[in-house]
Write a sequence for this structure.
């Protein structure tokens, strides 16, 4: 029902490098030149040295006091010029990158940590949309809108928080810790979701089947999140095959007048897919022994790292809840287009990050770098919005006159969500969360004030898209965000 973006793709924590040499010299710049000699020799652009200097924790104030240079950029340019004097002579002020450097940076075989195959993204998009077909085969019981709806919002938010923990631990190379987080987080979320469903069922008069439906949603979210985070998309696709086949039978039978699946068969197929998903999820996480002492000790993170993980998980959960509110404000057949496009969102996001990473070495001056990264941002954001609007238009042709947001409305909402996801990938989760939470709060406030659902969602989506896209554009033009 929602997309999970791998925010730390390819990140691995390596063993601590050998200590840098200590040099005593009259000019402090000689000392730092010796410390970064190895980095400078292999660098193809001064900004690689800037990133290395900042990674060492040197602030502009420290650089001014210790080395007498204005900032990391001035010091990096000087160190690069010392190591590559021929490049310094040929560059001038804002000149092009030397031919030797340009040839190296334009190699098409250069590996990128952000490379994502198109088939994998397409499969993930289908997997995000397939669970919606379960509502075609087995609709929620009557009178369960508050019970099932509250459980859906809670599960959506909780799954994003658990996914954040899993991806963070995978980024450290700790697959056992990630599996443990998935198992324990998923089980805890399912139990809490049941409490939420009962709490809403009592005052609204929802029946036991409604609570059971909500519990099934929570269990599916827990298992599917584990499979997606751990890269087991094919196992999830196999588990959802009964729902896909039953829905295809029903959707093809209706226009032709042929009989669809018998009444009891739909819920049976949904339960079968749920059971298969749970089985696949447990096979991926049960080996981590999450309930044993070994499982509890998994992760290997210190207290500070664990605190950072949980702080990020809370923010990711709030982000997921806000996106759910924005998406479910108006639901219709066209909403499937937004869910189906989540795989494309991941691909365009990875494409944008890979292109901006390459721009660091390809640019010969700050202005050229800004032009390259802003061009990549515009192409990827525009491509994703075009994909969403195309899918929404196709949905409108299949279900003409059906309620729900139109293609332009979905395009604006998609632009806001994608821009927020880009901020997440740049390590700016607090900004992304603040942006989408403010938009969700504005939408809820507008609806409480009596504004029509269509007007409220359209206005909020447009303002959020413009604001978040501007913040993202400012973030990507900061070179050190891509180190």
């Amino acid at each position: 029902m929602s997309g999970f973006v791998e925010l730390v793709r390819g990140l691995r924590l390596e063993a601590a490098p050998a200590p840098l040499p200590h040099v005593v010299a009259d000019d402090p710049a000689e000392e730092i030149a010796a410390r970064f000699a190895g980095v400078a020799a292999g660098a193809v652009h001064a900004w690689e040295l800037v990133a290395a200097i900042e990674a060492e924790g040197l602030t502009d104030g420290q650089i001014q006091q210790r080395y007498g240079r204005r900032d990391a950029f001035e010091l990096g340019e000087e160190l690069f010029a010392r190591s590559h004097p021929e490049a310094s002579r040929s560059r001038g002020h804002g000149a092009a990158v030397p031919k030797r450097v340009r040839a190296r940076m334009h190699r098409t075989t250069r590996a990128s940590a952000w490379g994502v195959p198109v088939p994998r993204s397409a499969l993930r998009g289908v997997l995000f949309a397939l669970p919606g077909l379960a509502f075609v085969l087995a609709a929620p019981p009557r009178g369960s809108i508050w019970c099932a709806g509250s459980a859906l919002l809670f599960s959506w938010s909780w799954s994003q928080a658990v996914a954040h923990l899993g991806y963070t631990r995978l980024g450290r190379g700790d697959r056992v810790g990630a599996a443990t987080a998935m198992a324990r987080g998923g089980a805890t979320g399912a139990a809490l979701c049941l409490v939420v469903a009962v709490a809403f069922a009592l005052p609204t008069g929802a029946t036991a089947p409604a609570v059971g439906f909500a519990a099934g949603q929570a269990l599916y979210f827990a298992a599917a999140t584990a499979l997606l985070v751990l890269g087991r998309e094919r196992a999830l696709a196999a588990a959802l095959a009964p729902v896909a086949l039953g829905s295809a039978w029903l959707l093809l039978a209706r226009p032709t007048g042929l009989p669809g699946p018998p009444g009891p068969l739909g819920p049976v197929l949904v339960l079968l897919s749920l059971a298969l998903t749970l089985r696949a999820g447990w096979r991926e996480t049960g080996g981590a022994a999450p309930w044993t002492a070994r499982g509890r000790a998994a992760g290997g993170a210190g207290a500070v790292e664990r605190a950072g993980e949980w702080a990020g998980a809370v923010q990711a959960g709030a982000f997921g809840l806000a996106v759910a509110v924005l998406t479910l404000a108006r639901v219709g057949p066209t909403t499937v287009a937004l869910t189906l496009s989540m795989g494309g969102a991941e691909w365009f996001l990875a494409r944008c990050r890979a292109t901006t990473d390459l721009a660091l070495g390809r640019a010969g001056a700050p202005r050229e770098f800004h032009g390259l990264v802003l061009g990549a941002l515009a192409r990827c954001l525009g491509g994703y919005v075009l994909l969403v609007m195309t899918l929404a238009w196709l949905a409108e042709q299949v279900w003409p006159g059906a309620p729900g947001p139109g293609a332009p409305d979905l395009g604006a909402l998609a632009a806001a969500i994608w821009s927020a996801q880009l901020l997440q990938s740049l390590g700016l989760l607090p900004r992304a969360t603040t942006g989408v939470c403010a938009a969700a709060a504005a939408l809820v406030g507008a609806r409480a004030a009596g504004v029509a659902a269509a007007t409220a969602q359209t206005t909020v989506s447009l303002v959020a898209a413009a604001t978040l896209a501007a913040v993202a554009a400012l973030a990507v033009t900061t070179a050190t965000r891509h180190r």
